[in-house]
Specification:
This protein is of the alpha/beta class. It contains eight helices and nine strands.
Length: about 210
Amino acid sequence: MRCLVPVAADSPKSRLAGVLSPSERNAFARAMVIDVLLALSAVDCQPTILSTACIDNDRITSRARVEVDDRPLTPAINARLADGEPTLVVMADLPLIEPQDIQRLIDSNTDVTIAPGLGGGTNALAIREPSFRVDYHGVSFRDHCRAADEVGATVNTIDSRRLATDIDEPADLAEVLIHSNGAAAEWLTAAGFELETTGGRVGVSRQ
């Protein structure tokens, strides 16, 4: 099964601007990509990164082929799906991901397998139905369920906290430090972030 990992390389993670500078957001985003690629390689996936700009990072380019495509996410993915090849799409901001999560996607025998995000998005898809097309706008999980139904595709939803946890907001950084010891967690620790409990809630602070 072909594997695509979309990467917004030119201006990643804008919602982390309150805690990370532009260069830090870039470096942190790349660390998350490395975590995803390591999980994919553990199950013998050979991923292709669809990047909006060139990527100059040996830890990434040594593990995946990079194709530059500056189109928005939906048309970039659908252009690849047009050839009908079974395709796994995994988002690049899933630093909690483990090889067994990817294996669940690969092993699913339905036409479309969806791993929803906590906020209603779609964090991973395994697509075997040639006529299925993605739409990442709005509540894309519901949209993808509807799109599968429209083409008569069978659907399986994977309930996985690791797959559901994409990192977009400053509060999400705590999930990385709590549940991961990968490249993204190492980057946050080196940048001075640590867990902090205030009022019974776990967050992060920066030294």
